């Protein structure tokens, strides 16, 4: 597949280059006056793609740390449709797709939980079960710049182990002029012959008042983005002969609606005082209707003679027809109030107070149907498709409502199931800083300060079995067999499926069916109780940092040296369950500890615009929230195999660990950068090395059942183990390891090489990362680090001149371990295959006349319809999941004045 993808990219690049080169020649040829105007445009007003690249390059060069940057092309306009898209193109960064959208960012081979996200320098909460921020919650139109810190410095509070992503909104006084922009885009997602249409729109306003002492910036962005996909999986596995065991097939329809609001108020009445008030709000409603089936093959029927992994035949198949509804309703709010006061010629004081809070209400609803009573079980042929999935031929037409009945077709003891979750996250921070500047000497200034953070995150779960109301009383006119009911009428959806060889599967509105046809039967067990927890963290960070600005001979030296002292007091509340009590008893726990994090960053300015950077630091990342939960479940196994090989009745305790300490690492970074043409381009190479002093993974230890005081011996079951010493299984700090890698990157406007190539440019990067960390502990050496792709590459070719712009981008990552929502609503790990995603963008901005400053934009995302795939143990003949998201086409109009 890769040669084809490279050829497609090459053809797209060549076609775009020829088309726009011809257009440029046609406009440049008539007269020297046109060329002079173009030169004036290029030198006086750099806009669009080139503006974004040059601003990002300048930020990278001027930083004293090793950073990557993405800057907006114009007010309210980042270069990609989402922040995650833009970040995924930076050296050493990758994105994991959810629902076809890049959402989680992996930095240098680490999953999102190892990084920290800030908004205007303030740590942000997250909407998922852990710490990783979902970047599609932040509308790209409201973000002015994104900085990714790959090295640490002492004044960077809340830093991550893999990196820190700082989202920045515009500063109206620094912007310096009035601006108003309106962006409107229509989009169409196409999977096969099926289409879904949506749109996005935004408006941005920046102004200054009262003789430039007051600045105001406002932005609003709305997204209405229906989507769709086809899914093969979650495959159940394969038998000893490699025969398909069973799985699921789904058609998914998504409705995504997001509203975002950004506001910035600046007040600077004098050179001595400066105040900034930031407000950010985002509401994102995501609804998904899933229609499909779940069925066993080798694990649910009889495998017929002559079957092979490539072509298998079965009889006795009994599919469960699934119509599900999943939804997540998210709200995110952040506010920050910063005051800066100049205390004389050499001192500056800063006080900042902020709050970030989020709430997610999530619903996972399942309803079941199957072949009605009296009909024999089905037959099945399964054929392997080299695209990475199986195709199927069933004997029945599962789009025919006359053969289907609502009910417990799988014999699972329920006619449906519902899970309602709620996640809340609240973080309040108070920060004080002082800076002392020096007029001469090695150090330009010394900064010191403190930051106090109080964060509480909780998760609640409410789950129930669903029973068909008409069948609760047994036989009735609507439930003639006492166990099943006719399919709902008046709320049917399309039966056309047209994927994986299956022409049709009957569909209906699962949410409306739940509201009218089902009764809840509360489910109380230990698994559900363990999803109810709260974690509180109080973190005090004190820091001192000396900023270096000097010369050694003819070499300029900039940088910083300092340390942080981070004191943490953490606690958790939950429930511990035991046999006979699924609700359990309240339990709590916690720990306190202090970390010292030294850091050093040096930047050497060499002749001919060369820069060498060095960084050394101690880094840390707080443990996952679901690992910190106090919850536990006491059980016993009558035939437990102990570590010494003996089999005996044994008590067991599965739990979280509120006493966990962070991941900690010693990190070294070295980078070389060569800049061209007044920061218009650069080439660079970087090496990084992290030695994790410990890693967190599940470990086994002894525990005494007599210490579980809320579960006295009088409540023990009659067959309970007599030996009070059992085994506890919980996350612990254990053996670490190293991760290291090379990053190569280039950003080059091609007119630097040859003047006739004015307007053409290229950006590319490549990363090679290695790790010997064993994420599940010693003895599990074959599982890679979550989020790590050994090879990552990105290439973007662009042209921008005379109002024309075009960009073709392709990003690739090799195989990696990611997280998805698994059974029960918890996160589970999967090994996903490598992927290559190509996007194309064409645009034109009117340069004069009545349409001046109006821009037209055409984009195609996922040009080659790259699927999202996983397999068992990397075996292509044993696919596990195959998500086909299709292409998305966007056409937009932007206006700025």
Report the β-strand fraction as a percent range: over 45%
Largest sheet: 22 strands, antiparallel, barrel
Q: Stretches where pLDDT falls below 50 for ≥5 residues?
A: 1-44
Which structural class matches the secondary elements? Answer: mainly beta
Mean pLDDT figure: 89
Q: What overall form do the CA principal axes indicate?
A: globular
What would you call the quaternary organization? Answer: single chain
Alpha plus pi helix count? 8
Task: Give Rg in angstroms.
Answer: 29 Å
Helix content: under 10%
The rounded distance between the terminal residues' Cα atoms is: 46 Å
Beta strand count: 48
In brief:
This protein has 897 residues and is mainly β.
Overview of this protein structure:
The chain has 897 residues and is mainly beta. It has a 22-stranded antiparallel β-barrel. The protein is globular and about 90 Å long. Residues 1-44 have low confidence and may be disordered.
Structure characteristics:
897 residues; mainly beta; 5-stranded mixed β-sheet; 48 strands; disordered N terminus; transmembrane; membrane; receptor
Please describe the topology of this protein.
Elements: H1 2-28, H2 32-44, H3 48-62, E1 67-71, H4 83-87, E2 93-98, E3 101-107, E4 115-119, E5 122-123, E6 145-149, E7 163-168, H5 172-175, E8 179-191, E9 194-209, E10 214-224, E11 227-232, E12 246-267, E13 273-296, E14 302-303, E15 311-317, E16 320-343, E17 347-371, E18 378-385, E19 389-394, E20 404-406, E21 416-437, E22 443-468, E23 492-493, E24 496-499, E25 502-504, E26 507-508, H6 510-517, E27 518-522, H7 526-529, E28 533-552, E29 555-578, E30 581-606, E31 610-621, H8 625-628, E32 632-641, E33 647-655, E34 663-676, E35 681-692, E36 695-704, E37 725-734, E38 737-749, E39 760-771, E40 791-801, E41 804-813, E42 816-821, E43 827-832, E44 835-845, E45 854-861, E46 868-871, E47 879-884, E48 887-896
Parallel strand pairs: 4-7, 29-32, 33-37
Antiparallel strand pairs: 1-6, 2-3, 4-5, 6-7, 8-9, 8-48, 9-10, 10-12, 11-12, 11-47, 12-13, 13-16, 14-15, 15-18, 16-17, 17-20, 17-21, 18-19, 21-22, 22-27, 22-28, 23-26, 24-25, 28-29, 29-30, 30-31, 31-34, 32-33, 34-35, 35-38, 36-37, 38-39, 39-40, 40-41, 41-44, 42-43, 44-45, 45-48, 46-47
